[in-house]
């Protein structure tokens, strides 16, 4: 008979435990205190498209370095300083991306630009031209296109269709 009483008590205890658990869940769900807010980082993704000309860098591969900069940094950047930021495996926090460019192969790159910073684009050509670096100032657009030719980084301009006036 003791076995029958123990068997009857076990479902009762389980039912009480289940009821208590459901009660706690309901109280927790109905509380007015919101969960602690998690800080959200602002994401500023920009797409950069690089189109190397057939003769870019004498038909050899080269790197393009993309950095978060301000105007003063950009103006004082030398070729040697920028190349040392990337090679050998330097972990400079201003470098957003270093990407290998192949002759005649278009390359798309996405970078997350820190708030308040401009973008510096540097072509590490074998023989850099007069415009081996280029700065993109505020306000930044969502995407940019570049032509890489003869040691220079140049913004490509999309032509507007001509209107036909009669």
The gist of it:
By secondary structure, the chain is an alpha+beta fold.
Which CATH C-level class of one domain is it? Mainly Beta
Using only C-alpha atoms, the radius of gyration works out to: 30 Å
| Name given to the CATH architecture of one domain | Sandwich
* Global structural class: alpha+beta
Helix content: 25-40%
Total number of beta strands:
8
Mean pLDDT: 81
Shape: elongated
Q: Order of strands across the biggest sheet?
A: 4-1-7-8
Q: Report the biggest beta sheet as strand number plus sense, adding barrel if it closes.
A: 4 strands, mixed
Element pattern in H and E: HEEHHEEEEEE
| Residue share in β-strands | 25-35%
CATH superfamily annotation of one domain: Type VI secretion system, lipoprotein SciN
Span between termini: 108 Å
Give me the CATH fold name of one domain. Answer: Immunoglobulin-like
Number of helices: 3
Q: Spans with pLDDT under 50 lasting ≥5 residues?
A: none
